[in-house]
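Lab meeting tomorrow. Look over both lines:
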Amino acid sequence: MPEAVWFADPPPLRGPRVAVIGAGLAGCATAAHLCRAGFGVSLIDSAAEIAGATSGNRAGLVNPRLTGEPNLDRYYRAAADYFFPYFADLCARAPVPPEYAFDGVDGSKQQDAHTGGWLAPRSFCRAQLSLCSDLHYRLNTTITSIRAVDRGWQLLTQDGALFETDAVVLTQGYRTAPLQIDTHYLRPHAGQVTLVDSAALPRPLARPFSRQRHYGISLPDGVTLCGAVNRRAEAGPPQAQADLQNLAALAAYLGADSPPDSAILGARTGTRATTPDHLPVVGGVPDEDFFASAYAMLHHGKRHRQWPPARYLPGLYILNGLGSHGILGSPFLAHLLVNLMRGNVKQDTRDAIHLLHPARFILRQLRRKPADRKS
């Protein structure tokens, strides 16, 4: 059987109701694509508003960059090729279009076919959801456990309420442990952005920049957003030292001395989910017990053996690990996922489905000798 057997598609979803856990960029794009496909969606988040956590920064880069790493560049190209037509259609149809300016990004090797810029994430989320006809919000709601039942999944909230749905999509970042779903490959990555008074800068930013892991965006209201000091950890309160580092990076780009500390208007921290290979995950949640049993001998090689197709936890999906590229990547990933849920995967996206498959981390372990596998 071909190697694609490890990535066999899950059965198409039969029921019409889907719960999306997480109302950030990933969750809102997923909800919008599900609504467009005719599903009824419950959008759930512990915050009081959509994009209330890490996706709530004032602005973010839309940077269709090239890295020189083949798999990353394949993903970025596919994501950008989907994003820009999708975004143009959204701006034409949404009652209130998103706040954005696509004038390019300085200091980054961008794809020739696309011009990036900046976009306000929350306004992007709102614009997408404004086109949904069958959408129910469950904000200020934390899901503490999920359980498979005869007709789908049962979700328990922090106040003891129960409700059932045909399918669940996990988009809430790395915090999946309370749900007892193994996503060990998701890693927290904390970042801090700083808001600066543009009038205190020696000169305004002509357009956004991205250089040496720092970036800056000049907003229309006289504020410049710069960032992002980050580390592999969960985010805590804003740190003054991180503000100074962001301010110094902004000044270095402008070729000037750092503005006074009084130029700092505020700061914001957030935790993004990343993966070991820096690619997101999208697809059905694998049945790990089945993988461990059916592919236990995978380390001997795949020739001369008939391997069974992959199995999944029925009706459970994940779209996660977007890192710092949620704006550009979330619509494309939602497009892939909804087609997968409908049993309508396009052949030209099959390569991306395999590249971003949640089971890839399990398979990497199973290809090792048992003594070399990580627990």
Remarks:
- The CA atoms of residues 81 and 114 lie 8 Å apart.
- DSSP finds eight helices and 17 strands in the chain.
- The mean pLDDT is 91.
